[in-house]
Amino acid sequence: MTHRLTFILVLLGTLTLAMFQPVAAAEFDRGDDGDDSTLISEPPGSEASAEAKAALRSNSYERIGMALFSAKSQADINALAPTFDRLRERQFGPSLVVRPTAVQDVIAYITGDKYLTGKMNMSLYSKLKKGDILLRRTGRDGCKQWDIIPLCKYWALVYEHSGIFYGARNGVQSVYEASNIGGVQFKPVSTWKTSNLYIGLQRSRVAAATISTRLEAFVNKFGSNGKTPYNYNLVDKYTERALYCSQLVWKFYLTVGVNVDSDHPFYADWLRIGYGNTLASYISRSAVAPDEIGMSSNVYRMATGWNQ
Q1: How far is CA 132 from the centre of its chain?
Q2: Smallest Cα–Cα separation from 48: which of 90, 82, 99, 92?
Q3: Which of 149, 232, 267, 287 is most buried, with most CB under 10 Å away?
Q4: Nearest CA to 260 among 208, 289, 296?
């Protein structure tokens, strides 16, 4: 028990370092060095919601954080994120400097690849089966484009995006996914095969016929080409009016009796040390992140690595 407690305490401190600085950047220097904190422009006339404006007027770290993680639009995120960052830094101060290898232990738990140096066997893409889960990280630091995956810099330790392999659709091998550009849609699997992406491939043990039937019903329900819009509200994973990427994966797998939201305590502890108890509970209780899918014991890991 003593050894386990010591490990967790070291782990929590290291996770703070990992959250606000590039994780072992020298170990997996891939991709460009773009600024992932840049907020995108809103269409003319867009503005923050009344809830976001009220939270800003409060100047309360926790209230602004809760409004951010339950944002109604990109306009809410644009309005809330700068103040949230400033208040978080004021509240928690500089990151702790502790044993630098502990975060790699958590990465190993998520990916099986301690330093994220593995290489993807590209032939596996031709062996994907309908329903397989794809997880990805963009480049060395991850979370490059908020316009695709809003807020990912706050909750992505390794993986920032996820999708479900569908197979051939209109002659194109496709992934069913959700993003801020286009909502729920099909994208070519080729968009997951570029060399700056670190990919995780996972598969369930559910019968292929069941997966195929349920996935068709799921697609019919939520549509494609934006029929179902993107869900900005990270903590509302239960809604069906809008879906974010890992929420879509989680909801589909519930239809075949598999819960891929691991709710792993290490992930909750990472949030807690970075944001405090109130926000960590608020997020971990009701959100499902790609990293949590990566930690799920209800699916098995096929492969992880950088595309070649």
Answers
A1: 17
A2: 82
A3: 149
A4: 296
User: pLDDT per residue over 1-29, tens digit each?
Assistant: 434 433 443 444 444 434 434 343 334 44
Q: Which residues pair with 200 in a beta bridge?
A: 135, 304
* CA atoms of 183 and 244, how far apart (whole Å): 8
- Per the rule left: phi > 0, alpha: psi between -120 and 50, beta: everything else, 289 is beta
DSSP string over 60-78: -HHHHHHHHHT-SSHHHHH
Q: Are 198 and 30 in contact (CB under 8 A)?
A: yes
Judge whether 139 and 172 are in contact, CB under 8 Å. Answer: no
Place of tokens 């306009």: 75
Name which of 145, 168, 149, 159 is nearest 199 in CA terms: 159
The CATH number corresponding to 112-306 among 2.60.120.1440, 3.90.1720.10, 1.10.150.20, 3.40.1490.10 equals 3.90.1720.10
Cα distances (Å, whole numbers) of residue 115 to 26, 67, 197, 271, 297: 10, 34, 15, 21, 21
Which of 205, 211, 228 is CA-nearest to residue 296?
205
Terminal C-alpha separation, the chain? 43
**How high does pLDDT run on average in the chain?**
85
Our CA angle for 236, 237, 242, nearest 5°, is: 85
For residue 306, what are its two tokens?
């950088």
Read off the tokens for 78: 């644009």
DSSP-derived secondary structure letter, 175: E
The residues facing 137 across adjacent strands are 198
The residues spanned by each domain of the chain are: 112-306
State if pTM tops 0.85: yes
- CA-to-CA distance for 251 and 288, rounded, in angstroms? 10
Radius of gyration of the chain (CA): 19
